[in-house]
Amino acid sequence: MQDRRGRACPVPFGSVILVAAAWLAAAGSGPEKKPETPPASSVRDGVYTEAQAARGKTVYLERCVECHKEDLRGDQQMTPSLVGIAFTFRWKDKKLYDYFVGMRNTMPQGAPGSLSEETYADLVAFLLSEMGYAAGKDELSTDPEVLSEIVIESSATM
Ligand code: HEC
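^ thats the input. predicted complex w/ heme C below
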């Protein structure tokens, strides 16, 4: 990966020993600590592209807008808002995969699972963009493993 190249300097050997020593000390006394897993990415890391969100918008306007409305905030009655506090409250700290699967398995209401995996990813991209999460250079994948690595953090817009 190009943008990592500059930062790929080796860790000074001394600090490796310090970390190992601290880890051994912790293992001896307190509850066992697992070695750190690499930090998962989050929805704030540019996990979709502008083009993908634009595709998602087209589908949204065809298949979702009648219930969830143009402002994505639903009808204040049967249909919930898809953005803001409603989204954050329900989905914060969950995996983007869970959100993706939830949407695919229930929406559009009356025809769940009727769209392609790619189209559901496009819809997720559109909703993320509407909530103010920045786009990036790679499209949001439909791969469960990739989606499971992405954590939902609270949105910028409420
Ligand atoms: C006929 C009305 C209707 C249509 C069309 C519809 N929805 Fe929904 N949607 C609902 C209702 C009602 C709920 C809440 C009940 C539920 O989750 O089943 C909901 C819930 C959701 C949720 C879960 C919200 C949350 O935070 O848990 C998402 C995401 C969603 N819809 C996305 C979509 C998308 C994307 C489309 C278009 C592909 C769509 N919906 C089409 C009525 C609709």
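The first strand starts at residue 41 and ends at 42.
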